[in-house]
Amino acid sequence: MSAPLDAGLAAGIVLFHPAPALLEASLASLQDSVGRIYLFLNAPLSPATRAVVDRPWPRPAVLLNDGTNLGLGTAYNRMAAMARADGFSALLLLDQDSSPLPSMAPALCEARARLIAAGECPAVVGPLPVAARGCGCKAPRCFRRGGAVPAAGAVPLEFVISSGSLIDLAAFEAVGGFREDFFIDAVDIEWCLRAWARHYSCWMLSSVPMPHRLGQGVLRVPLLGLRLARQPPFRLYTHARNQVAMLRLPSVPLAWKCRAALAMAAQSVLHACASGGWPALRAFALGVADGLRSRLGPVTRDFG
Amino acid sequence: MTTPKPFPLPRPAPRPVARIAAAVMGELRRHPGLRAGLRGLAGPALPLLRPYLHALPTADALGYQRWIEEHDTLSDAEAQAMRQEALAGRNPPLLSIVMPAYETPPALLRQAIASLKAQTWPHWELCVVDDASPSSHVEALLSEMAAVDPRIRWRRRTRNGHIARATNDAIGMARGDHVLLMDHDDLLPARALHEVAALIRRHPDLDIAYSDEDKIDGQGRRFAPYFKPDFDPELLRAQNLVSHLGVYSTRLLRRIGGLRPGFNGSQDHDLALRASAATMPARIHHITRILYHWRQPTQGSYSKREAARCVRTSRAAVMESLASAGEVGVVLQPAPLAPGWHRVVYPVAQPRPLVSVLVTMPVGGRLPDCADGVLRRTNWAELEMIVAAPPAGPGSGPFRPLDARLRWLEVPPGTGRAAALNLAAAEARGSLLLMLDEAADVLSPYWVGELASQALRQPVGAVGAKLMGRDGRLLHAGFALDPTAVVRPVAPGAMAGDVGPGGLLALTRQVSAVSGAVMMLRRAVFQAAGGFDEESLPHALHDVDLCLRLQWRGMRVLHTPFAMLMHRGVMEALPAAPVEAAAALEAARAVMRQRWAEALAADPFQNPNLQVLAACMTHAAGSGFEWSRGGVA
């Protein structure tokens, strides 16, 4: 049974060398549940992917950008502006690492309506990210928002990951766009914390799972029993850089800053020990240095 | 009849302290960054400091103290005269005060009831419902009070039902035609019931009435006055305008089923929304007097979580009210400057209407300063811009702008602004007209969307934006009417982050007039009203005249702070020599005074006490005015 179409909902997928089969599955699952699909090309499409996009879908996708990698923040902002101008009230953000089920978008829309009726001002409602079967990766960690109580079947979180999240576009205008200079990593964390600071809220629907692929596998830390997402040095760099840049933002709570600083120190050691020492440590060190100097934007450093 | 014991006021503060405090508070107001920094540092200690903050001898506190002494103190002779008048009248209306009580500290409950017994209007009954308080003192105290005064009746619930159910039970006990809602620890000034009864006598069909209010602390210090405007359904969606002292006809309350338990925390806001929707505006009245002192706890007993819950229930009530009114697709947001209150975002149907931006210039031949902001920094593609101006000089050809959305309209030299705008409006193709000053600059891309979403609504005639000056001070947030000057600015000199008294600068509300520097209205409305009066008001005040004509036709004029622009020049009525400009402005004032004498005499959306209070504050800051001893009037 297909999910009902929500006329006020559009979907936007950011593409960076996607696997054609995964993109095809995402497009198929969204056909009946959203009014329009935007594809933002942060890399040129391969012939196989182009063939998937060019298939005669009932709801053909609108292609944005020329394949230049402008980062996640810019992609989300452009798609949100496009969706707002086209008259949509909400935008479902996705990237190629997620596999949304057909029932996900309507469930998120219903949760948003329930939250609004309960007097909440949801900026974003997301599903429960779970590790995709067979990917060998871990699910992103969820952080409950202190002082906020569950409502309308949803759980308040400090942030929800951007992929799979339903953004309220009126709230988007009030909160402001995603940080384009973050490029990748933590754009969703920064935006959600800003939304909370402006008295909006961020919610997760635990009853709606969404398979997601985080990183390139899992790093297991012996003795401590910890599991970290395996990331290339480039991503460790952007992670450290943007987390440090967030330390000076007034919208980020002090508790979050303390937790982020401690977590980063621990992660740098653990990644260095578990995934090959110097490159990881160098990426972290450069990220911290650039974050402190506010040297943000597209990554210009060479990580081999 | 007993007189309540006066509440002790703090000892007089020495003048230097008052002056230093006033200077420091003034500096903080002028520097939002410094204020934010200090707030961040003081954040952890704020809950402990809050009870003492309003006791500081600031200009605001001293000014309000002065206002109380000069304008809100009831003398013994006046009180006696009011009592005699009340006793002499025939068929006096019986006022039923309904009060839910739960674990009320005995001293506060005694003070609340004592404030009733001190009323100059004796024809009242108090209906108290003890909401199953676990302690026995509430029951004992109510028994004691009822035994000595038959006007006091009470009952006890067997199970705790929270405030809405307890209040409904009390409403059920009421025998009067009108019910007044009172909390168990608050105070009414001695004249409160007399004023309500007088209003009921003047308007026997009254369904809802509300008064101004202030807050009172444990030491009896009054602070934070809220001088409200007359009833404004737009503002009621943003905040509980009715609140205290709320008076409802018993018939109406019973018809709509009283308060709803699902909205506990903001049950009174829900009630005001439903009651006002169930009656007509002519039966809703506002008393421009402080008739309620809302008790503020000395200890921080009101938790953050509890406050958040009240805001949520208030939003839920407004959302339900909007749905009942048939408003579809509306979104409620926290007002950025006052997150406990609401911003209502109305949807704009697709395809979005074309907006015609009309700009006049004294001399043509160049782009107006606002063009870049309108055409390149505004998130509203469906725009055209018409610039009405005389040619740059003799023999100069028409100016050819590069943007196809910009059109040039040549007007004869000497054409007044009103006539130029009328000519531009006749050329406009858009269904929405936006009058814009050429020096207005865009601060946010969403300003046209906000103005359009309001202007497209049926009851709205015109909508104006918030206009800031280059120095960061407020230039315009709607006009207040004035019998002499015709209009005066609201909250002159306020900063961008100022909330204003009662949220005046932070919420969408009705005003009597908005400036033509930024004014949007539907073209059909503009044409039906006959456009600007270019004959009698060619250079100045034609915008105010149009707004008053729209209201005369039953439409609303709104000010929205959610569309904010900056004026980069000097706001001038007309491009002329200062002497000629002053003469033209005075001529326009004379026309307006003759045409709108009745409207100018009383602005329904501007409480007259605000201006009096501002004068008291200015005087208190500059003089040696000190705290005085005295009681609640």
From TrEMBL, chain A:
GO terms for molecular function: glycosyltransferase activity. InterPro entries: Nucleotide-diphossugar_trans (IPR029044). Keywords: Glycosyltransferase, Transferase. SUPFAM superfamilies: Nucleotide-diphospho-sugar transferases. It comes from the Bacteria. Belongs to the glycosyltransferase 2 family. This is Rhamnosyl transferase. It comes from Falsiroseomonas algicola.
TrEMBL record, chain B:
Pfam families: Glycos_transf_2 (PF00535). This is Glycosyltransferase. CDD domains: GT2_RfbC_Mx_like. It comes from Falsiroseomonas algicola. Residues 96-255 form the Glycosyltransferase 2-like domain. PANTHER family: GLYCOSYLTRANSFERASE, GLYCOSYLTRANSFERASE 2-LIKE DOMAIN-CONTAINING PROTEIN. InterPro entries: Glyco_trans_2-like, Glycosyltransf_2, Nucleotide-diphossugar_trans.
